[in-house]
Amino acid sequence: MISKINFIALILVFITSYSYADRNQVIENATTHFITAWQGENGQDHMNILVVSAILEKQALSANDEIAVFSGSICVGASKLTKDINPLDNTTFVTILASKGDGVNNGFVENDPIIFKIWDDSNQLEIVVQSVSYRNDISIWLTSGTFSAGATSVVDIVHNTEITQTVQFIKGSNLFSTYLIPTNTDVSVVMKSLCDSGFLLKMEDESGKSYSYSTKTKVWTNTIGSIEKTEGYLISLSSAISFQIKGKFIELPLSIPLKTGWNFISIPQTVAVDAMKIIQPLIDQKKLIKVQDELGNTIEASRKTGVWVDNIKTFYPGKSYKINLSSSSFITFQ
Questions:
Q1: Which residues of 277-299 are buried (b: 16+ CB within 10 A; e: fewer)?
Q2: Rounded average pLDDT over 18-23
Q3: What percentage of the chain reaches a pLDDT higher than 90?
């Protein structure tokens, strides 16, 4: 692990070697997503922001990703990466030159909070950064998180994207799962909006544990505990409703363990998937008895011919499916 003394030395080498030519290179390294308010000009009364590490979803930002700083809604500085940022290699650090405005919305406002944004090029996604750590190894480095003409801030960026999944529920029974790990996995938290709206009647898992309301005590009781990434749930509603859940993507591949008898499986993928492709290994193992969706459609073998008939066709995100096995096994989503 790099020591504090060595880190300071790296920064000092970088700063002292940061010539006018280097500054032009940063300015000319035009971004393709973020457009600064002073595009095509040199800017004025710059603040220097040095990014020494930038992690997005546990991965370092890479070539073609972009980092920008905003003063309110105005982009006042941006840079496009040409390589991964390595905290041990000062040549990979990213310098953002933020220009001060002159009163016509063309730069930062003194003492405005610095808002960092990332352009994730591989996913074509703009992200507002959640966590920025300001280094204080040298006393003159600004750590207030605000804009100041002539100042230098040295920062580490960490961001774990919070995604929103929208699920359309019908009135009555729904088989539900999510491709997210909720920000708070407690069932009572995840289902709060449905409870507050008065639409949720009951939620059950495959073992019969429930999240239900007692008309006697006027209290919701949660025996399910937390939402699990491998599980599906039976949800009963008094009305059709659009439901939103927030969290982080489930990491794939994901193997879902299956017990003998009925299982409610999750669909951890963001796109629809061929149902037979997922359950074919269970057929090959001669363990599958039946698959059923919330409408009653099935995948099962014909009693006459023994040929498997697929009336489900597709597993959809947001849904759960019931799988009945003769003995335990597992399925895998890639």
A1: ebbeebeeeebbeebbbbeeeeb
A2: 40
A3: 75
Cβ atoms of residues 162 and 183 within 8 Å: yes
User: What span, in angstroms and rounded, lies between the C-alpha atoms of 231 and 237?
Assistant: 19
> What is the reported pTM?
0.60
pLDDT tens, residue by residue, 114-150: 999 999 998 888 999 988 999 999 999 999 999 999 9
Q: Where are the domains of the chain?
A: 4-159, 164-333
Sheet (strand 261-265) strand order: 261-265, 321-325, 288-292, 298-301, 308-310
| Structure tokens that stand for 79 in this block | 């840079």
